[in-house]
Specification:
Layout lengths: L5 E4 L9 H15 L5 H4 L7 H12 L5 H19 L11 H10 L3 E5 L5 H8 L7 E3 L12 H10 L6 E5 L2 H10 L2 E5 L2 H4 L4 E3 L8 H8 L5
Parallel strand pairs: 1-2, 1-4, 2-3, 4-5, 5-6
Helix pairs in contact: 1-4
Protein name: Beta-phosphoglucomutase
EC number: 5.4.2.6
Cofactor: Mg(2+)
């Protein structure tokens, strides 16, 4: 197995607690449109682009608006979301994230962001995480949403590593699938029931230890 030279991180639900703000904004839009959007519904939106998320929400509400209306809805939801995340600070970094990023940096492992979020830079700047990243690939640079592997392949290319030398940290099924399609190993953050395709699944980054990366280098069972 190849030596691990780089780690690529999803943002929402892995490094920072922004997922709740997406949910609040989508729920607010659904209420305005006259239907209920639940936390269970929100699970379907994890790792999915903004317009694809809107399509899922509209499907739940049984609505088929014109394209121009959809663009207005997406813009409105995003404006609410940006309003919420503008007040974020370092206290919303998830447990274990800062420690792991520091350890990776100290061990010479390259670090990239691989997120569908178009607001990633604002979030990283507000939380003070920006300096940890060698490369930032977000929704402003990619065309295809996960499970397409574009975001991770682009990150590896800009880091100067092969897919086999990279490990992805993800909290969404679509993200784990994207990592697999990219030819990368993955660490699932969350439930084994949802993220069972990942090489390792832990409840949070606080439960992940650097030694587990080295274990992956010698585990030839899955990539």
């Amino acid at each position: 197995m190849s030596q691990i030279k780089a780690c690529l991180f999803d943002l929402d639900g892995v490094l920072v607690d922004t997922a709740k703000y997406h949910f609040i904004a989508w729920r607010r839009l659904a209420e305005e449109l006259g239907f209920t959007f639940t936390e269970a519904d929100n699970e379907r939106l994890k790792g999915v682009s903004r317009m694809a998320s809107l399509d899922i929400l509209l499907e739940i509400g049984g609505l088929t608006p014109a394209e121009a209306e959809k663009l207005e809805m997406a813009a409105k939801k995003n404006a609410w979301y940006v309003e919420y995340i503008s007040a974020m600070d370092h206290t919303e970094i998830l447990p274990g994230a800062l420690k792991l990023l520091q350890e990776l940096r100290q061990n010479g492992i390259k670090i990239a962001l691989g997120s569908a979020s178009k607001n990633a830079m604002m979030i990283l700047d507000n939380t003070g995480l920006t300096p940890f990243f060698d490369v930032i690939i977000d929704g402003t640079k990619t065309v295809n949403a996960k499970p397409d592997p574009e975001v991770f392949l682009m990150g590896a290319r800009e880091l100067g590593v092969t897919p086999a030398e990279a490990v992805v940290f993800e909290d969404a099924e679509a993200g784990v699938e994207a990592a697999m399609r990219a030819g990368m190993r993955s660490i699932g953050i969350g439930s084994p029931a949802q993220l069972g395709q990942a090489n390792i699944v832990v409840p949070s980054l606080a439960d992940f230890h650097l030694a587990q990366l080295r274990d992956l280098e010698t585990d030839a069972s899955r990539i």
